[in-house]
Structure formats: structure tokens, C-alpha cells
Amino acid sequence: MTSSHQEPTGFNVLERVRRTVRTSAARAGVELVVVEEVEQLREISALFAAVWGRSSEGVPMHSEAMRSMVHAGGMVNAAHDTTTGELLGAAVLGRDEPGACYGYLAAAAPNAGDRGIGRTLKQHQRFWALEHGLDVMRWTFDPLVARNARFNISRLGAVVRAYEVAFYGHMADDLNGTDVGDRVVAQWDLRSSRALAAGEGVLPEHEIDPVRSAPAGAHVEDGPDGTPALVVAGVDRWLRVPPDIVALRGHHPEQARAWRASSANWMQEAFAAGLSVHAVSRTGWYHLQGETA
Predict the structure, then answer these.
(1) Is the pLDDT of residue 4 over 80?
(2) Cβ distance 183 to 140 under 8 Å?
(3) How confident is the model at residue 127, as a pLDDT?
(4) What is the pLDDT of residue 34?
(5) Which residues, 6 or more positions from 65, have their beta carbon under 8 angstroms from its beta carbon?
(6) Each residue's pLDDT tens digit, 24-35
(7) What pLDDT is recorded for position 179?
(8) Above 90 in pLDDT, residue 54?
């Protein structure tokens, strides 16, 4: 398997990413725009509030903060329905260390369905970043939200190597409940063969059952639901998260907290051993491998 650090040679990477953006936008039925004006940023702020809800501090991101980030060299992009003009999604990108950028928020409207809005927005961010000389994008996400994890790692081609305990402290919004907000750090090497393959829909996905396929002598541990959630076979490890952590947080908060604690321990041990996440299955299994995988 190609390393996520390896950059392809003999290709016009920017042109390939441009084609990926155009194809993705056409399939989603959206027009992509870069947003700078305050009125449009207010609409985006309202969209974020509709997705995450409001906390005691207000909306997830205020329009004035977004305006300042754009002024400081960042980018806010939006996806509008090509027929109705309705705002269907938006994302916020800021600057990071030299040569890198940082993704803050990205969301599709609650009524957007499964149109590929998130993928289209992220590929648009990727194209913009490459145009501006930025080769790496980082962001954090909740490791217990299986669908987001698979999107970031298996659909975009990002890699995860770091776990941040209590990154947001105790949270209080519609998606995170009131538990501690642990996060993992996604790193997307925008020019890599892995990112190109993911963008063009040809990154291999290995949908295996790690429990059934585990060799004799593999170490298996149960998760908080009493079924296998950790498989250690040689160097490789597989780690399962629940199918719907948001529902668990709402109806069974103690079990949700137990999932966070066990996943945190298992992931931190794996990262300390030099492993990283290269794939997430449809059934919520993280695959952690060595860096040469």
C-alpha cells in the first residue's frame, strides 16, 4: 500500500483535484462559492446553529469571527443548490503552521440528505489550499462518530496519528451531549497518492470482519456493549466504535462515557506504539497500522 506521505510524480495534481471538485459538485447538484461578505456569513452561521444547536455561549461560529478569519488569509466556502439557490452546506478553513491549513467547521444542511455535500466542500477546500501553496490540512473530529470517521479517513484519505483528551473540556450541545469532548487529529496530505485515489474514488477499502478473520492467538477485548471491540493481531489493531454515539449520549449517557473511556485508552496505546489509522469500515472498525502501510 502506498504511504500517505508519498507524492505522485508525472501528474498535474492541481488539475486532477480541479476535476475532482467539478465532478463532485455536479453529482451533488451544487454550485460552490467562496464567501467573504458578512450577510452571507450570517446565513452560514445560522446553518451551523441548525446543525449543532446553540450552547450557553451562543452559535458554533459567529459571522464576525468568520469575517476576521477570511481577512487573515483563511477561506469560507458554501454549496448552493444549482436549481433553487438554497444554502446546502458550508465550511471554514484557517491558516496553520507554514505550508498548512486548519479546518474548523464543515456541515451540510439537515435537509440536504446524502448528496455528498460534505465531500464536495472538503475537495473544494483542498483545491483552494493547493492554489495558495498549502499542502497539508488538519482538523479534529469526534472518534466515536463512526460515519464521520469513515468519511475523513476512508473517503477523503486523511490519516490519524494523535488523540487529544478533553480537547473541548465538558461540552453542551445537541450532538455532543454533556460528556468530555475528546478528539482525534486528522492530517490530510493534499498532494499524496492516497488523497488523489480517495478523491477519484479508487482508494481501496477493506471491509473485513476482524473478529472472524483474526488469526489464532489474537487478543480480543469486549466493548461496553459486551461484544468484541478490540482485536490485536501482530502489529495491526482493529478498534470498533458504536453505530450511533449521538443516540447513546441522549438515552444512555453512562454507556456513552464508557465507550469514550475505552476507546481513548486503546487509541492512545496504539498511537504510542507508532500506529496510525488508515481505514474505517462501514461497520465502525478502525484499522490501525504501522506508518509504512
Answers:
(1) no
(2) yes
(3) 98
(4) 98
(5) none
(6) 999 999 999 999
(7) 75
(8) no
Confidence of residue 180 (pLDDT cuts 50, 70, 90): confident
What is the per-residue DSSP string for the chain? ---TTPPPSSS-HHHHHHHHHHHHHHHHTEEEEEE-SHHHHHHHHHHHHHHH--BTTBSSS-HHHHHHHHHTT-EEEEEEETTT--EEEEEEEEE-STTEEEEEEEEE-TTS-SSSHHHHHHHHHHHHHHHTT--EEEEEE-TT-HHHHHIIIIIS--EEEEEETTTT-B--BTTTBTSB--EEEEEEETTSHHHHHHHTT--------TTTTPPTT-EEEE-TTSSEEEEEETTEEEEE--S-HHHHHHH-HHHHHHHHHHHHHHHHHHHHTTEEEEEE-TTSEEEEEETT-
C-alpha cell at 205: 477499502
Give the C-alpha separation, 99 to 97, whole Å: 6
Q: Which of 58, 240, 225, 30 is nearest to 115 (CA)?
A: 30
Rounded to the nearest angstrom, the gap between the alpha carbon of residue 198 and the centroid of all alpha carbons in its chain is: 13
Cell numbers at residue 20, please?
475532482
Query: Which of 70, 61, 184, 77 is CA-nearest to residue 126?
Result: 77
CA trace torsion 29, 35, 40, 41 (10° rounding): 120
For residue 80, report the phi and psi dihedrals to the nearest 5 degrees: -115, 140
DSSP 70-88: HHTT-EEEEEEETTT--EE
Residues constituting the chain: 293
pTM of the model: 0.91
pLDDT in the model for residue 1: 33
Digit-coded pLDDT (tens) for 201-219 = 999 987 889 999 999 999 9
